[in-house]
Structure formats: structure tokens, C-alpha cells
């Protein structure tokens, strides 16, 4: 019997208490514990957008957004890794059919992660390419069976083309440099590749991924796999912010509901829940989180509808979506910052979950794809009739 979306959501929700209990240990390990990865795998959560042809559920990104946010409520770092790994199943479906058969034919639960930035130049070799270099911020690399990495590929002319190459775990090593203030458990370390051979069937260009007709789509009729790359990848980065913000709001309400003040300035013995400023911060956070969620769900639904109609996704729609990805994170950051500012000195203790939410969500906002200054400038350039500077 097929696993329904409701069952997947129930399974994700059932993991939240365990992930929350393990969140501090996840930070100490500086990677998601193997037990958490095993639980997510056993629950079938990585298969949400994987093609049915290879054992997946082939649901759309509306469901995946809700799954990522749910997992992130338990642990922001785990939500981050889950979102990237689950979305990477969709990315693999865009690669040439031969590599899909190669990876999923051997292991339908193969764990994939990626490093999108083109951090090296690939050299032509007989039957493929040779690749060497270092890739930063490769989240989840400790658990990756395969990794797709961005690189510049030799073009027909003088200008190289950006693209992605898929490599098995044996072809890269990890440089453990992930010592950070936020998203500590994502294990977003460097990986190093030294003269690895990548056959041509494990390579796809950025232009192909952006076309809506990537090589792998010949295997999959579902419009899900005809969506441009940049309409989806940023979602896996933005969506954990939803779950982190929802967790922070729940924690703040629980704290405010049962706490009385001790400081003389604030009025010793007063119930925190009776302060108008506290009430206002809760209302504002609720509104900001709702707005962020609605933006992300609306945009992904419209993109899928465009793909289903065969209409493609316009430049205006792509740039609006990129604006909304960053704006959704901005809203969630404002929500959590407002709540954390009202926690008082108790928020300084590491045992207080709110401080982790505060650190993690501000770390998400540091990602270049979510950087409001950069993304909003691109959207403004388009609105003014200028050439947009950025990826969309």
C-alpha cells in the first residue's frame, strides 16, 4: 500500500520529540547523528519527491515543505540536512538516465548531498572529465553516499559552462573545519577531490537543469521533474527556517505562560503573560511565520502548475520566487529575534532551546542564497528594467 502524505506527515511529527531531545548532542557531534539519519530513512521521508520508478513516492514540493518544517521543529540542523538530502533525490532525477539506474538501481535509499557553487574547473578526459578542488559548506557530507558538486565545464567556445558532476563517496575526502555558532550540527565541512575521473553520464550543465527539460526527464512524465533547478533548490534552504521559527514560538509561549518576573525594574512578581509587549511579540511572530509559509507554498504551487501546463516558468516568476525565498527567511528571523529579545537573562542558558533557535535561524540568513541584501537587489533590478545580477 502506498504511503500517503498524511502518513508521512504523521511519521515526521512522531520524530520531533526524539530529534529535540537529541539536538544538543547533534551540536556537540557537529553532524546529524547516524541514529537520526536512520530514523528519517526508516520513516521513508527521504523518498517524498523521489521518482516512483525507483521506489519513491513522487509527491510534490508542497508536501516536502511541510515535512522539512516539521523535522526542523525538532532540530534545526537535522531539518537542514533532511531538506537538502530529500531535495537531492529530485536533483538526481534530472541527471542522465544511466546514472539514475547506476545509483538507485544499487540502492534506492542512497543518501545524496551537494555543493552547488562552481568551485573548480573540470578538465576534459576520454569519456568524461577529471576534477580536483575544494568545495565549502558541503552540508551532510559525513552521511553522503554520493555528492554532486558544481564546477566549470569546458564549453564549445572560449567560455566555460557551469555544471554539476556526481561522485561516489570514495572520490572525496572531508576536511573537518565546521566549528560554528549556528547550524552547528549540519556538518557543513569542506570536501576535497583529488584528480577524480567523472564519466560523462554523471554530468549535467546548469543550462540543462534550468531548462525544464533536463536529460533525466525522459524517464519521468511527472511535471515535478520539469521545474527549473533554481525554482526548487533554494526551498530546501529556506524551509527549515519555518520549523525553527515555529519551535521558537511554541517554546516562548510555554515559557511566558508559566513565568513570573523577578527583576525589580520590570515589576517583581508580575506574570509575564500579562505584559502587553509579550503579547504583541507573540502576535507579530505568528503573523510573520504565517506570511513566510504562505509565500513558499504559493510560489511552489504556481511553479508546478506552470510546469504541468507546459508553459515554463518566466523570468519574472523565477525572480519573484527568489525574492520570496529570502523574504520568508527574513520574516522568520524577525519573528525569532523578537521573541528572543523578550526572554530575558534566562535565554542565555544553553539549556534554553530558544537560544539554539535564535542561533540557527540567523545562521540560515547568512547563506548567500538567502541574503536579503543580495536577493532583494536582484529583484529590484528586474523591476527597474535592469539586468538582474544573481542566480534565478
In terms of topology, how is this protein built?
Elements: H1 5-21, H2 23-29, H3 34-42, H4 61-74, H5 76-92, H6 97-106, E1 112-121, E2 123-125, E3 128-138, E4 146-153, E5 161-168, E6 173-175, E7 189-199, E8 203-205, H7 206-210, H8 233-258, H9 276-308, H10 315-341, H11 353-364, H12 372-383
Helix pairs in contact: 1-4, 4-5, 4-8, 5-8, 8-9, 8-10, 8-11, 9-10, 10-11, 10-12
Describe this protein's structure.
The protein has about 400 residues and is of the alpha+beta class. The protein has 3 domains: about 5-105, Acyl-CoA dehydrogenase/oxidase, N-terminal domain (Butyryl-Coa Dehydrogenase, subunit A, domain 1), CATH 1.10.540.10; about 110-205, Butyryl-CoA Dehydrogenase, subunit A, domain 2; about 230-385, Butyryl-CoA Dehydrogenase, subunit A, domain 3, CATH 1.20.140. The protein contains 12 helices and 8 strands. A 4-stranded mixed β-sheet has the order 1-4-5-8. Strands 2-3-7-6 form a 4-stranded antiparallel β-sheet, with no helix packed on it. β2 (about 125) and β3 (about 130-140) form a beta hairpin. α5 (about 75-90) packs antiparallel against α8. The longest helix has about 35 residues, at about 275-310. It is globular, with a radius of gyration of 21 Å. The model has no long low-confidence stretch (mean pLDDT about 95).
